[in-house]
Design a protein that fits this description.
This protein is an alpha/beta fold and 237 residues long. 31% of the residues lie in helices and 28% in strands. The protein has seven helices and ten strands. The strands form two sheets. It has an eight-stranded mixed beta sheet with strand order 4-1-5-10-6-9-7-8, sandwiched between helices. A two-stranded antiparallel ribbon has the order 2-3.
Length: 237
Amino acid sequence: LMLTAGCTTAAEELRIYTEQYPPYNMTTNGQPFAHSEADITGLCTDVVKALLGKAELDYSIKLRDLSYGLNRAERHPDHAIYCVSKTEDRAPFFDWVGPLSSIEWTLFAKPGSSIELNTLNDAHSYQIGGYKGDVMSDYLVSEGFDLVMNVSGEQNPRRLVLGQADLWVTDGLVGPLVAEEEHDITGLKPVLVFRETPMYLAVSNETAPAIVEDLQAALDEARDSGALDSIVQRYGR
């Protein structure tokens, strides 16, 4: 009698998570959760779907809050999350496919504000709105800035208008979009862009290396063909 132990080199299904972070990742109906890829869109989502189509992998995409998705992707093989930055703390737990896009770290003030900043150090005298788990917020906290933190960033435009924060740290595309869609606030003042960060699909490092290699090759092919440029242009960048 011969017994053989099979070892697969590909996941039965790559389980992918993202967060509500328009215009990069978002639900089609504005809800904070989604269980199906058909209900999830955005710049990074379109890029991920394009590379997954080329890689010919079975997959599912769900939208949850950032901390939940990071926890699932970190602890389970064949799990992943996008669009996330490659921080020092995160790097050991994932293999990184990308870059998918990039974010511009921007400080916004309320419409009509007189605040002017020449350097990031100039912001030390102001209270800044951020949210827990966000790499931009965490960076400013580590540098000694005064941040008021929420579990999400959606309330920060209203905090600006109500005077509960002087500045809001977020991406250059995200800020005006969230302000208008969530609170009907237009004319946010971009005061300072102080960093640009590439964003990735982070795949659990317990996932078969061949899967990660296939994903990166598919992304590179999509970039070389011009498909990624077409997606980015649709979102105004």
